[in-house]
Amino acid sequence: MRFSSKLLLCTMIVMALAFGFSGFYFVNYVFETSLLREAGQALDENSILCFAFETAALNVPAKYDILQNNTVEQIASNLEKGGQSASRMLRFSDEEKNAIYASIGFEADSALLGQTDESTRTYRTISMNGHYYIQTGSSVKALDRVLYLETLRDVSEVFNERALGFRVYRQVTLVMLVCGTVIMYLISSWLTKPIRLLTRATKRMAAGDYGYRAQKVSDDELGQLTLDFNHMAEVLEENIGKLEDEIQAREDFVGAFAHELKTPLTAIIGYADMLRSRKLDEEKSFLSANYIYTEGKRLEAMSIRLLDIMVARHGQAQFQEIQAEGLFLYLRDMFKTNETVNFVYTYDNAVIWAEGNLIITVLINLLDNACKASEPGSIVEVIGKKEDKGYRFLVKDHGIGIPKQELQKITKAFYMVDKSRSRSRNGAGLGLALCAEILTLHNSSLKIESTLGEGTCISFLLLETKKENREVWNEKNND
């Protein structure tokens, strides 16, 4: 059952119970009040009749010492006739509570009379011949006799009014329930509209429409729930996008890796088969062996780079304080034998917080790429300078440059801007990917600025070894 239907059903049940109990209480309250009023009037009438009887008895000629039964009957008959317009019925009984006179139709039993004595007046409600009466009883003292007077007052109209009240109230309740059902249906539909919109959004998202958002139609708790749901949907869509990008990147990685393996392996297998299957002169044998050696070295370099990427991605780096000057001196010694380009080193001395061997790997890859992109005799600048937020390393060449549309892709594994040029220099497109992974461990990233035909500047920022910087790094790394 839908929530709106449950809400409607529960409301109707509560309304029906409320109308039922309140109506029953109200009608019965009016009935009891009317019945008490009639009982009071019946008792008053009984008292008046008693007084009238006593007065009439005093006016009877004194022929006897006591009041005779026939005189009682005569007085009672006169009292009954005097109240015919009020449908008065009465009964007189003697000291033994035996009836002396009774009106026609007075068929009530003597149960009430049995409870009546000289000092007590009684009354009760009885049903007789399809009518309802209030029966009263009291004692009458006349001429040394104690008689008992009972009266019947017809109160059927009160009971008829109660029945009419219940009938009218049932009709009113039915109309109110019908109107209440319509009103509550509209209210429940309005209240549950945010839930229906959320349900629709959930189904749309389950069907693959992750960009669909639920419409906010209120500012209450359900409105806040809608905002939270939309925020969750945005995060979910973002995560799904990341997963799709990651899956695509893995597929591209596997495809590129297979392609990069195929090229050197084809050359190695072809030249090895040539050496194995035929006899070549010394020059051709040397060239074949050289191709095998060159492509083997490229495979070796590629496997080492892949291993480094995996280690950088999953390994735990040991950070410590490092003199920036030591890194530049190491690079100068390592590349001093490279005579194809001219290296210019400019740096400020500072103490940085990093893993030394990994940062050296990053710098070596950047210098190696700069050499490959530069023409012989070009200048490659290696710069280190202090900034407000830390220490920045820059490697700047004046080579072929990188197209703007390629800048966002060059840190992906196996991606090469100029594949023929890179392969000719034993490149596999893994250097910058490795650099990006290492710098991620240092909470840093590559900043690449390049102009096609003019050169490229690649830089990254490391924290100086200050207490607050180390605390920031530790907090990020722990997260």
Report on the biggest sheet.
5 strands, antiparallel
* Spans where pLDDT lies below 50 across 5 or more residues: 417-428
Number of E strands: 12
Give the H and E element order: HHEEHEEEHHHHEHEEHEEHHEEH
The average pLDDT score comes to 80
CATH class of the largest domain, named Alpha Beta
- How many whole angstroms does the radius of gyration measure? 56 Å
CATH-wise, what's the superfamily of the largest domain? PAS domain
The CA-CA distance between the termini, in Å, is 46 Å
CATH architecture of the largest domain: 2-Layer Sandwich
Shape: rod-shaped
Q: What's the helix count?
A: 12
Estimate nothing, just give the exact number of structural domains.
3
What share of residues are in beta strands? 15-25%
Secondary-structure class: alpha+beta
| CATH fold descriptor of the largest domain | Beta-Lactamase
Placed side by side, the strands forming the largest sheet appear as 2-1-5-4-3
Helix content: 55-70%
